[in-house]
């Protein structure tokens, strides 16, 4: 039995490659706090249907999906401050919402694809207002304190652009700068990996005049002013700075 090969650059997704944030600000001016130490994220989007059958269906069922709800479940470790006794702020928000009513029982959350390496899925993300149910998962005599959380959407979720910059898994790597011999104001293509979220491209100590992150593996940059000859090119991301790559500038 033969197996069809996957396209180059394809990778198998991992179950932990999702992030979940809770808004500790207001809806109009959100302050997103990542929910740390969570596991088991399982969102669902249950359908709402309406009977659309007519005589043309000759007695067969015909239902239209008129809307989608939202539900989510996960677990989170109950980490506390030894100074104040309080949980982490995101856990405090979940605990408080689970014990209150009306608007105080509602949390504003967003979820998104968060890969270990490579580009995040641009639209696998959403925002939803949800009520919270919470229970202690472990109740034994010597177990980690973990909360089991269930979210129930108030209305449908809102698709959003993925907010994750994709900067995880170590410093970027520069493997090539082409074409050789480009002078100031000319474009070069920088190849390598880990470029998502890049904050600077430097030729020696001088930042590129402009640069565009095309993908996790490609940046197009404008060569800044400087003397002809060898220069070290580096890419800077929140995850670190690449090792220097030697490039020869033109006059």
UniProtKB/TrEMBL annotation:
InterPro entries, alphabetized: Ig-like_fold (IPR013783), Ig_E-set (IPR014756), IPT_dom (IPR002909)
Domain IPT/TIG: 172-245
SUPFAM superfamilies in the cross-refs: E set domains
Gene3D superfamilies: Immunoglobulins (2.60.40.10)
Name of the molecule in the record: IPT/TIG domain-containing protein
Species this chain originates from: Microbacterium foliorum
């Amino acid at each position: 039995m033969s197996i069809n090969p996957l396209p180059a650059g394809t990778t198998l997704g991992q179950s932990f490659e999702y992030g979940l944030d809770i808004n500790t600000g207001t809806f109009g001016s959100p302050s997103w706090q990542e929910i740390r130490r969570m596991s088991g994220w399982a969102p669902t989007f249950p359908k709402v249907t309406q009977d659309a059958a007519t005589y043309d269906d000759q007695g067969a069922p015909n239902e239209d999906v008129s809307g989608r709800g939202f539900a989510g479940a996960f677990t989170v470790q109950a980490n506390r401050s030894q100074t104040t006794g309080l949980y982490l702020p995101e856990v405090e928000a979940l605990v408080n919402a689970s014990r209150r009513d009306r608007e105080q029982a509602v949390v504003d959350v967003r979820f998104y694809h968060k890969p270990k390496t490579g580009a995040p899925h641009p639209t696998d993300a959403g925002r939803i207002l949800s009520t919270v149910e919470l229970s202690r998962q472990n109740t034994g005599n010597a177990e980690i304190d973990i909360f089991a959380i269930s979210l129930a959407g108030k209305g449908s979720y809102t698709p959003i652009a993925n907010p994750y910059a994709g900067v995880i898994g170590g410093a970027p790597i520069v493997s090539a700068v082409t074409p050789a011999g480009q002078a100031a104001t000319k474009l070069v293509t920088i190849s390598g990996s880990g470029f998502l979220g890049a904050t600077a491209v430097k030729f020696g100590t001088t930042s590129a005049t402009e640069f565009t992150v095309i993908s996790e593996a490609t940046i197009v940059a404008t060569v800044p002013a400087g003397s002809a000859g060898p220069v070290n090119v580096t890419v800077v991301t929140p995850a670190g700075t690449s090792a220097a790559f030697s490039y020869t500038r033109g006059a």
